[in-house]
Design a protein that fits this description.
The protein is mostly helical and 306 residues long. The protein is built from 16 helices and no strands.
Length: 306
C-alpha cells in the first residue's frame, strides 16, 4: 500500500511539472493565459499597496489637534480620580494616630499639606501648623484636640511612611494642575468658542464624548444637551413613563449645577443651543471667539432667573 501511495504522489508531482512546461520543447510555458494570471496578481498587489496607503492617509487626516485635547482631559480625569482615592486613604491612615485632625480639616489638599509639614501629634507646634497654611481658628482647634486625642501613638518609621505618601499625593495634585493649564491652552487653540462658553474641562469632555470637533459640530443642540446621559435617554425610550434626561455632561457647568431644579432644563437647552453654534464656528470658522454667543446666553440666563 505504501509503494502504491508513493507512485501516485510521483505521478501527481510529474503531472504538475509537466503542466508548467511545454510538452514539445520542455521549456517553461509562455502561454497568454499564464501571462494574464501573472499580470492580474501584480495589479492586485499594487492595488493592495494603494489601499493601505490611502487608509493610512485617512487615519492621519482623521486625527486632528482636537485629539490632543481629548487625551489631555482623559488624563486630567484619571489624575483627579486617583487624587481623591489617595487623599481618602491618607485621611483614614492618619486618623489612626490623630482622628480629630481629619474632622477639623475637611479639604483634602489642606489635610495632605498638614500631614506632610506638621509631623506627629506630640511634636506639633503653632509655628508648624502656621507653615501648613492653616487659619488661626483651625490652629487653635487642632491644639485643643491634640491634648485629649483618642488616637494611638505611632513610631517615627510609621509617620515617615505617611509623610512620604502625603508628598506623593501633593506631587500628583501639582501634575493635575499642570495638565489643566495645558488643557486650557489646547482648547483655546482647538475650540475657542466652546472653551469660552463652558470652560476647558466641560468643553473637552464634550469633545471626548462626541469623538472629535467635527462630530460635535455636526450634532444638533438636542443631542449636545444629553451627551453623557445616554443610559437615561434609552430608559426613557424603552419606557415612556420614565422622564427623559434634561442634561448630560453640561450639568457640570456651574450655572446649571447651582440652579433650582425647575430651571435646569431651560438653562441646559439654552446652553446646548449656543454650544451647537460655537462648535460649528470653531470647526468651519477662523477660530476667533464670538463674544455675542456668551452675551446672548447670559441674557437668556437672566430671563430664566427672572
Amino acid at each position: 500500500m505504501a509503494i502504491k501511495r508513493t507512485q501516485r504522489e510521483k505521478k501527481k508531482k510529474t503531472g504538475k511539472i509537466a503542466s508548467k512546461t511545454s510538452k514539445k520543447t520542455g521549456e517553461p510555458d509562455k502561454s497568454p493565459a499564464r501571462d494574464e494570471k501573472r499580470n492580474s496578481r501584480r495589479k492586485l498587489s499594487e492595488l493592495k499597496k494603494k489601499a493601505i496607503a490611502a487608509s493610512k492617509k485617512a487615519v492621519v487626516e482623521e486625527v486632528g489637534p482636537d485629539r490632543l485635547a481629548i487625551e489631555a482631559v482623559a488624563l486630567y480625569e484619571d489624575l483627579d480620580h486617583n487624587i481623591n482615592l489617595f487623599a481618602t486613604r491618607l485621611r483614614e491612615w492618619y486618623s489612626v494616630h490623630f482622628p480629630e485632625a481629619a474632622r477639623i480639616l475637611k479639604d483634602n489638599r489642606e489635610f495632605t499639606e498638614f500631614v506632610e509639614k506638621c509631623g506627629e501629634r506630640k511634636s506639633m507646634t503653632s509655628k508648624k501648623l502656621a507653615s501648613a497654611g492653616l487659619s488661626d481658628k483651625k490652629i487653635e482647634s487642632i491644639e485643643k484636640a491634640k491634648e485629649g486625642s483618642i488616637g494611638i501613638e505611632i513610631t517615627r518609621d510609621d509617620f515617615k511612611e505617611m509623610q512620604r505618601f502625603a508628598s506623593t499625593v501633593l506631587a500628583i495634585e501639582d501634575e493635575r494642575d499642570s495638565v489643566l493649564k495645558y488643557l486650557g491652552k489646547k482648547m483655546d487653540e482647538v475650540a475657542p468658542n466652546v472653551n469660552s462658553l463652558v470652560g476647558e474641562t466641560v468643553g473637552a469632555k464634550l469633545l471626548a464624548r462626541a469623538g472629535s470637533l467635527w462630530k460635535l459640530a455636526m450634532m444638533p443642540a438636542s443631542t449636545i444637551q444629553v451627551i453623557g446621559a445616554e443610559k437615561a435617554l434609552f430608559r426613557h425610550l424603552k419606557n415612556k413613563s420614565i422622564r427623559p434626561p434634561k442634561h448630560g455632561i453640561i450639568y457640570q457647568f456651574p450655572q446649571i449645577r447651582s440652579a433650582p431644579a425647575n430651571e435646569r432644563g431651560k438653562i441646559a437647552r439654552a446652553l446646548a443651543g449656543k454650544l451647537a453654534i460655537a462648535a460649528r464656528e470653531d470647526y468651519f470658522g477662523n477660530k476667533k471667539v464670538d463674544k455675542n454667543l456668551k452675551k446672548d446666553f447670559e441674557k437668556r440666563l437672566a430671563e430664566i432667573h427672572s
